[in-house]
Every structure is written in structure tokens, then in C-alpha cells.
Write a structure and sequence with these properties.
By secondary structure, the chain is mainly α. The protein is 66% helix and 0% strand. The longest helix has 22 residues. The radius of gyration is 16 Å and the shape is elongated.
């Protein structure tokens, strides 16, 4: 049950983080390049939800359960 909980929480974090990163794509203009966009999203805390969610999902799927 704990693994399912962490998987679902990770999935939710990944969805929110991915949507925020896609939403921030609107700030790219010809004056600002992709490198400036990457520097900008690296400073935003909500963009770290995507890798955190992927880590939760990977962890819940990779580590074996204690009870058999």
C-alpha cells in the first residue's frame, strides 16, 4: 500500500511539474533563448516537482517490498 501511495504521489508531482515547465515555455521570445529559459526554470521551485516525482515513481517501482 505504501508503494502505491508513493507511486501516485510521484505521478501527481510529475504531472504538476511537467505542466509548469510547459507553461513557462511561453516566456521564450526571440530575444530570450533556450539557455535563458533553462536558467529561469532552474530558479523556480515548482519546476523541481518533475524530477522529484520521477524519483518517487522510480523508487516505488525499484525497491522490493518487505512483506512477501
Amino acid at each position: 500500500m505504501v508503494r502505491l501511495f508513493f507511486y501516485l504521489v510521484g505521478f501527481g508531482f510529475s504531472v504538476v511539474g511537467g505542466m509548469v515547465i510547459i507553461a513557462y515555455l511561453n516566456i521564450i521570445t526571440p530575444e530570450r533563448g533556450f539557455s535563458e529559459y533553462m536558467a529561469y526554470i532552474a530558479t523556480r521551485a515548482e519546476c523541481y516537482l518533475l524530477p522529484l516525482g520521477l524519483l518517487f515513481m522510480w523508487g516505488s517501482l525499484s525497491f522490493p517490498s518487505r512483506g512477501s
